[in-house]
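Annotated sample (chain length 819).
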Amino acid sequence: MPKALRRILTHPLALLPLVLIGLFWRSFDPSLTLCSGDASLAVMAQTYLLRPAIFLAPWSAFNGLGAPLQPLALAPGFLMVWIVPFYKYVDANVLLHLLLLGIGGFLLLQEITRHRWAALLGGLFFMLQPHVVSHLLPGHVGHFIMVGWAPLAFFALRRTILTADPLYALLTGLAFGLLLAAGQHDVAAFFGFTLAAYGLFLLFRRSRFAKAQPTSLPRIIGALSLAALVSLLLSAQAIFANLLDQLRYHTEVTAQESVSGNPEMPPRELWLWATQWSVPPVETIDAAIPGLFGWGSATPENPYRGRIGQTEGWREHQGGLPNLNDVCQYVGAIMLLGVALAWRYRWRDPETWFFTATALIALLLAWGKFGPLYRFFYALPGMNTLRNPIKWYYITSFSCGVLGAFGYSALLSSAEKGPLSVPSAAFWSFLPGIVVLLVGAIVLHAYWADPFFLQTWRSPNPDIQRFLADQIRTQSIRALGLAALFWSMAGTAVFLLLRFPLPRPAARIGIGLTVVTLVAELLAVNVHYLPYQPWRPLVQSGPFTDFLKSDMVRPSRLRFLRQDGLFHYLRDVAATAGAENADPYPARLPDAFLRMQAALERTAPLTFWRLCNVRYVVAPQRLGLPELTPCLSLKGGDQTAIVHEYRASLPRVWRVTDWEMGSEADALRRMADPRFDPAAKAIVHGAPEEGPPPLAGGSFKPTGSCTLLHSSLHALTLETEGNVPGLIVIANRYDSGWKAWLNGQPVPLRKVNYLLQGVTVPAGRHKVELRYAPSKNRLAFVAAVAGWILTAGGFLLVMLIRRFTRPSSPSPVAPNPVG
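Output written by the structure step:
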C-alpha cells in the first residue's frame, strides 16, 4: 500500500466517513427512497413519484411553488437535486452534511485543543449528535445543510481573526454563506448570533495579546469585511428572495390571523403560536438519560409522553395537541463528563467560559415559554417571527461538543503530569452519573403520580389504563437502565485516564473505551430516528404500504420506509374523517388555500375538488356520492381503505369562454353556489378597467380546446385553440413571480377563481408559456453567481501570489494567542 494512502487511512479523520457509511449503508440501495416528514422537499418527492399511481393533486402539494422553492436553484446542498436522482436527494444531502459536520468539527477542535484524539471525539459527536440526526424523521433537510457548515464557519472565523489570512476570510464567507443559503431563517439566525458573539469574543481576546500576534487590526477588519461580502453574495437568494418575504409575511399577515381563523390574532395567541415547541425544564434531563420521556411521537414501541408541542390549556379543555415531538435532546454521558472535566482542568480558560455561557443561554432560550429568558428575546424587533424555541438546542448541543473536547484534551495533557488519587478520580468519574440517575428516578416518581403523564394513552377502561401505566413505567425503568450502562462505561473510561498516564496500557484502554462508549450511545439513541433500520421490517403493514409493495406502483422500485409522512396521515384521516382530498399536509398550505377550502367544503365540496385537480378520494368505506367511483380497495390487517376516482375533476389547464370581474370575496361566494360550473365560467380578480372585456354573444356555438404540453415545478407550456377569445385557467397557485407569454410575447397573468392563474387568449391557435421568474430572484441569482466567482477567483489569486512571492526561508510561526 502506498505510504500516502496508508497515512490517510490511519488518520483519525478516516474514522468519520467509515462510521457514517456503516450507519447509512442502506441509503446506497437505489431501490430505497427516503420521503418522510413535513419538509417541502419530502412532500414534493412523495407527490411527484406517486402522481402516476394514486394521487393527482400536484398544485396543492407543491404549495411552495414560488419564493419558498427558490433555494432549489442556488443553495449548494439543494444543487444536488440536479445531480442525484430525485428519489435519492434526501439521502445524499444527509450523508454530505453529516460528514461536513464531522470534518468541520474535527478541524475546529484540533485548532483549539491541539489534540487530534480529543478533536476526533468531538467530531464524532458533532456528526452523530442526536438533536441533529433526529431531524431525519420529520424530514428537516434544510437543517442538515445549515448545521453541516456551522463548525467549518467557526473554524475559519477563528483563523481569520487570529491571522487576517484572506484564504481563511474567503473560507469563512463560503461556509457561513452556504449556511445561510439553506433558507431556514430561524436556525440560520441562531447560528449567526452565536458566530457573531464568538467573533467579538476572539477580537476582545486578541487585543490582550497584541504583542504576541503582530497582525494589525485594520487587516483583520479587512479580512472580516471580505468574509461578510462573500457570505452575503452567496446567500443573497435566501436572504433577499426568501428571508425578507417570510419576515414580512409573518410580521404583516400572521399577526392578523389566528390559527383558528379569527380575523385578528391576540398577542397571547401569537406568543403561544411562536413558543408551542418549547422544552419544559424538567425534560432537560433527556440530555443525560436517553428515552426517559419516550423516543418520539412516531415511535410506536416507546412514544413520546412529555409536554413539547402541547397546546396551551390541554389539561383543562383536552383540545389541540396533547404533545408532539420527533427530535431528541440527548447529549450523552461521554460529552457531559467531558464538560465536567473541562471545568476541572480548564476553568481559567476564557473559551471554557464562553462556550459554557453559550450553552446555558441557548438552553434557557430553548425552554421558551417555560423559562424566563425567551420573553426578552421575543420582544426584540422581528424575533416574534421565529417559531419553535426548541431549535436553540442546536447551539446547546454544539457548545457541549466543544466543551467535551476541551475536557478530554485537558485530561490527557494533565495526566502526563501525574495521576489523581483514587478518591479524587472516582469523584470526577462516577459522581456525575450517580447524580443524573438519582434525579431521573425522582422525576419519574413525580410523573408516575400524575395522571396526565398518561395523557396520550387515556382510556375509559381502568384495566387498560393500568396496563398502559405499567408499560410506561417499564419503558422509563429501561431508560434509567440504559443510562446507568452508558454512565458506568463512561465513568470507567475516565477513571482509567485519571489514574494512569499515557502511554500506560490502562490509559490506552481508557481512550479506546471512551471512543467505543461515545459511538455506542449515539448509535443506540439515533437508531430510533433513522428513516430505516436494516434489522427491522422496511415497511409496516397497512393498506397503503401493501399498495406500495404491489406492482401497481410506478416507478415500480419506489418504496416508503417507515409508515410516517403522507400515508400515515391519510390512514388516520380515513379512519376518522370519512373522506378527504389527497393533500398530505394541510397545515403547510397557503392561507388562501385554507380559506378557499373552508368556504367551499360545506356547500360545494365537489367544486373545491374539481378546482384543485383532485383525482382520487380516500375513505375507510364506500362513499355514496354518484360522482365518486370506487376503483381500488386497500387492505392491511384489520384496516381497509377505499380509493374513489373523481372523474369530473378538471384538468391541470382548461379553457372557458365566459368570465366576469369580481373581488376575492365575490369569488368565494359565487363558487360556493352549487350551480356554479367552473368548467364553463371563471371569476377574474382586479379592477374592472384592468380586466379583459366580456365576450359578445355570437350566432354560433363557441368551441375551444387546451392541451398541456410540458409541466415542471417552475414552468409549463400549453397549446390552445378556439373560434372565439377565451380564458385559460391553470390549476397553479397565483403568485406575482409567475410570468406568462403568448406566442413568445409577454402577456398579463390574471388571478382567477380566488387563487388560480389565468391567461386571456384571442381566437385561433396559440402557444402559452408560464415561467416562475421574479425580478428580485434574478438579482439574487446574479449576486450568488458573483459570490461564487469572487470566492473561486479569490482562492486562486491568493494561492498564485503566495506561490510567486514565497520567501526562500520559512518564517517563524507566531504563537497562538487563544487556545
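Annotation: The radius of gyration is 29 Å.
Annotation: The mean pLDDT is 75.
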